[in-house]
């Protein structure tokens, strides 16, 4: 079963083709990566998938629905942690989880979510007083408090120190064991190589390669995904 189907997706800003004919599917229950350098079209693609932006061409289906037309209904089934996510500085951790849970018809128990993601000891702590890793852990918990079938994570570990980054990786792996479909958007090639079942490599708004990390590495005759990316980018020039 396909959780997400994107066909010939196009999005233009002025004279710039931010996304230029992108096509991919995401299987239910898999972790699918969208990777590439900054400006490759990753975030625009993700925003079209969750209905924040309307495509200029092509089609998007998430759980069988058009997110641009059915955004309100799909919001009950999709979770998202976006690149520029933030909360009011004085909002408490427990307060945020309780408030976000109230947005959903059938949310997870926000107290259980708080405990699962190691936030119980921070329940009374204000968002502005959290460390970078704690903030990201809270944002991930907020994306999941609605008990979504699909969750989109955009640049989840940007700005985190190595320890917090590896802890966040562990949390993403836990999502897979719960059967949640994950779309991981990241410019960190080691991250998508470590976490994703399959991925699409974007450059200039187009997909340059798609498959498992091992398949893309083998296709380019390189030793890691980062080297594979630069091999693909060089071959395209």
TrEMBL record:
Q: Name one Pfam family in it.
A: ABC_tran
Keywords for this protein: Antibiotic resistance, ATP-binding, Nucleotide-binding, Transport
Positions of the ABC transporter domain: 4-229
Q: Which PROSITE patterns match?
A: ABC_TRANSPORTER_1 (PS00211), ABC_TRANSPORTER_2 (PS50893)
Indicate whether Nucleotide-binding appears among the record's keywords: yes
Q: What's a Gene Ontology MF term here?
A: ATP binding
**Location relative to the cell:** Cell membrane
Q: How does it sit in the membrane?
A: Peripheral membrane protein
Alphabetical list of CDD domains matching this protein: ABC_DR_subfamily_A
Q: Coiled-coil annotation: which residues?
A: none
- Which domain of life does the protein's organism represent? Bacteria
Xref: PANTHER family: ABC TRANSPORTER ATP-BINDING PROTEIN
Q: What is this protein called?
A: ABC transporter ATP-binding protein
